[in-house]
């Protein structure tokens, strides 16, 4: 979603922020994961016609027949097996997702080996359904795009292997896609009016990123996760509170938080002493665990549905207090990122908030 930045949200850069910006300037965001880039590059041997291409040149090629470009996208970076068929002009012809929600509940989170096996079982069917729903076949494709990182290496390999198999069989190029770059750019598929430059906040189970997107393939990282991401904090807190996380820890915790008092527990806002745009949620997770222990809440084996009224209220207060601080941490880092971005690029007028819905209950 895009929101126009109002003047009241963009005061002049503080001296501390300006000093840090000059002392430690934000660094460009790498757009390919080195391990899988080398893996994919091996597909360019004479016996294998598939070649690795950069996302930016293909996506920005302004040719009359751009609409005729047909891309198959494959995503297996974590616990969802997904595939989609998209035209060169951004029209989404199909998208198919196979969830591992039951495994998340069984193992209390993503178990890499189990997730890999689930991907292996689902990948062929998911890709075929994406092609069928788009009414195309592999021979109609112009290229195959696949997530190459960041993500769980065991899971990523499943998608990469499938992409290489299709590319080799049909003589197609492979486009290696950076997971977080895709999150940043996907908004341009649904919001045709979103122009560069724009500031993006990317939040998911494993990552928090604040980036200034100058153009395709040209990004400046303003802030990143120094330990745990917000999605991880939501998921762990939801499990500790005995919530049903089959639809994600974020939605479950947010629903319970509606019943609680967000000021009941005075959790500390992370990293207020650090005048940068980085994120940290490990300490907040610890505060939640200690709050549960200090109140003698017995959540192990006692789901929220079986809790007493008093017990449920305590859990709701913890959830609401956690959520208030978790979101406040996002707000404070975003405020500083807006200041920095406007200093670097005064013409910026859009701020994108992008999140994985299965991990977070945020909008």
TrEMBL record:
Q: Quote the PANTHER family the UniProt record gives.
A: TRNA N6-ADENOSINE THREONYLCARBAMOYLTRANSFERASE, TRNA N6-ADENOSINE THREONYLCARBAMOYLTRANSFERASE, MITOCHONDRIAL
Specify the protein name: N(6)-L-threonylcarbamoyladenine synthase
In terms of Gene3D superfamilies, this protein maps to:
3.30.420.40
InterPro entries membership = ATPase_NBD (IPR043129), Gcp-like_dom (IPR000905), KAE1/TsaD (IPR017861), Peptidase_M22_CS (IPR017860)
Per its UniProt record, what NCBIfam families does this chain match? Answer: gcp_kae1 (TIGR00329)
Source superkingdom: Eukaryota
Q: Where does this protein chiefly localize? A: mitochondrion
* KW Cytoplasm (keyword) present: no
Q: Does the keyword Transferase apply?
A: yes
**Top-tier EC class:** transferase
Kindly list the places in or outside the cell where this protein is found, as annotated in its UniProt entry: Mitochondrion
GO MF term set: metal ion binding; tRNA N(6)-L-threonylcarbamoyladenine synthase activity
- What keywords does the record list, in alphabetical order? Acyltransferase, Metal-binding, Mitochondrion, Transferase, Transit peptide, tRNA processing
Query: Matching Pfam families, A to Z?
Result: TsaD
Q: What is its EC number?
A: 2.3.1.234
The record's catalysed reaction(s) read: L-threonylcarbamoyladenylate + adenosine(37) in tRNA = N(6)-L-threonylcarbamoyladenosine(37) in tRNA + AMP + H(+)
Which biological process terms from the Gene Ontology are attached to this UniProt entry? tRNA modification; tRNA threonylcarbamoyladenosine metabolic process
Q: Which part of the chain is the Gcp-like domain?
A: 91-340
Its Gene Ontology cellular component terms are: mitochondrion
